[in-house]
Design brief:
The protein has one helix at 17-67, and strands spanning 75-81, 84-94, 100-108, 114-122. The chain has 124 residues and is α+β, with helices and mostly antiparallel strands. The protein has a four-stranded antiparallel beta sheet with strand order 1-2-3-4, with helices on one face.
Length: 124
């Protein structure tokens, strides 16, 4: 039975401490970059949710105004939801056709983002 001395090169030496440290540094850098992306993604998701809620509120208010029999003057108000307080303002503009008006709706979300919609409606 022959023994191989420890100082001779063999195929299964493993990783050196320097190689392990370099691999850990690369992994840590990649994780920091990915965590920044996750935070940015969460902010974008929150902004999109507020925008979608503001859009729904704008559509609801335009529909409510369109269902009223009397012509709507310039009106505004606030709607409180779980996301915060949304402010809305509706203005009415004359069109070239005297039978129609343009009803504009502007909704401001709690974070300051705005949604603007309009609807042409028939005058009674």
């Amino acid at each position: 039975m022959s023994r191989t001395p420890l100082n001779q090169a063999s195929g299964n030496r493993g990783f050196t401490l320097l190689e392990v440290m370099v691999a850990l540094a690369i992994a840590a850098t990649a994780l920091v970059v990915l965590m920044g992306r996750v935070g940015s993604s969460a902010d974008i998701q929150h902004d999109l949710a507020l925008h979608a809620e503001a859009m729904g509120l704008a559509v609801n208010e335009l529909e409510r105004i369109a269902m009223e029999k009397a012509p709507a003057a310039d009106v505004s108000g606030e709607i409180e939801t779980a996301s915060g307080i949304f402010k809305w303002k509706s203005t009415q503009l004359a069109t070239l056709d005297a039978q129609f008006v343009r009803q504009n709706m502007l909704v401001t979300a709690p974070d300051g983002g705005t949604v603007s919609l309009f609807l042409y409606r028939n005058l009674p």
